[in-house]
Design goal:
The protein is of the alpha/beta class. Helix content is 33%, strand content 23%. A six-stranded mixed β-sheet has the order 6-7-8-3-9-10, with helices on both faces. A four-stranded antiparallel β-sheet has the order 2-1-4-5, with helices on one face. The chain binds adenosine-5'-triphosphate and magnesium ion.
Length: 279
């Protein structure tokens, strides 16, 4: 077994241990103990995310090198890079699922030391609990009033009326909408998206882009979108960062009017070309 394969297996093992059983929900929702009073509604809006000199190594392999990056409150940032370039690693550090080898990460001025309720994640696969209905998946925290909150989040993603369906009967795009509703229900200050639309067909992907742009426009959480897809980065983000060899190779504003037109926009095509050159 090569070092690369072994590293990937170890990675997958660690990941599956994290996602085993009901604990999977800890990645998305902070459980309030059943008797705990409802958390006060969070202010809607984004939080400042700061990375200072952040490095990450796995054994001998240096994946990230002294990254300095600020995501201002409410900004929509896309990170683009080749496979294995360390994009998911950054996201796991920001989510508090892993710790940097050097440097510091703060969100809203507080060091990231573990999972936090105001930081939410969305992965390529929706990771719904098959034994929970749609509304049960969204409202897992079970705080007082959770059903109304969950129903509102579902309506927000265009799934009003599907509350009692089981995940198995949903399409891939609908599952991702449920996962998005689950992330949104607790009004995150930071939304981390790791290739969330990569498995969807092109039309559904464009629909999800429009949905995400609208929801982000309303709630203004700080957003980090990780993607291979340069067109997706230009369609959604305020700013695109190219990650290459563990460093930032390009950091460019995406100064295009919203809502974005994804096709036949020469300004978007020029930006895509500039980013592609650096990937
Ligand atoms: N827990 C781990 N143990 C060992 N190596 C790891 C671990 N996590 C990530 N790596 C290695 O770090 C490198 C970056 O991985 P990462 O998952 O961050 O890449 P990525 O940019 O998200 O790639 P992709 O676009 O394919 O998802 C890879 O070489 C990977 O093998
Ligand atoms: Mg990845």
């Amino acid at each position: 077994m090569t070092g690369e394969i072994r590293a990937r297996r170890l990675h997958a093992d660690a990941e599956s241990r994290l996602f085993e059983g009901v604990d999977i929900t800890d990645l998305y929702e902070t459980h309030a103990p059943a008797q705990a009073p409802a958390a006060p509604a969070r202010q809607v809006g984004g939080l400042l995310v700061s990375l200072r000199g952040v490095a990450k190594s796995f054994g001998e392999r240096r994946v990230l090198e002294a990254l300095d990056l600020d995501i201002p409150a409410g900004q929509f940032l896309a990170i683009v890079g080749r496979s294995g370039g360390g994009k998911t690693t950054i996201m796991r550090l920001l989510a508090g699922l892993d710790a940097p080898s050097a440097g510091s990460i703060t969100i809203d001025g507080k060091p990231v030391t573990g999972l936090r309720p105001e930081v939410r994640l969305l992965f390529q696969d929706a990771r719904l609990l098959p034994w929970q209905t749609v509304i049960g998946n969204v409202g897992i925290a079970r705080q007082p009033g959770w059903k109304q909150e969950a129903a509102r989040a579902l309506a927000d993603v265009g799934l009003g009326g599907r509350e009692t369906d089981w995940p198995a009967v949903l399409s891939g795009g609908q599952r991702q909408r449920v996962a998005l509703a689950r992330a949104l229900v607790s009004r995150p200050g930071v939304l981390l998206l790791d290739e969330p639309f990569g498995a969807l067909d092109a039309l559904t992907r464009v629909e999800m882009h429009q949905l995400l742009e609208r929801i982000w426009g309303t709630h203004r959480f700080s957003t980090l979108l990780i993607t291979h897809d340069v067109a997706e980065a230009v369609a959604l983000a305020d700013r695109a960062v190219v990650l290459r060899d563990g460093k930032i190779a390009l950091d460019i504003p995406v100064d295009l009017p919203r809502p974005r037109r994804e096709h036949a926009d020469p300004a978007a095509a020029r930006l895509q070309a500039a980013i592609l050159k650096e990937v």
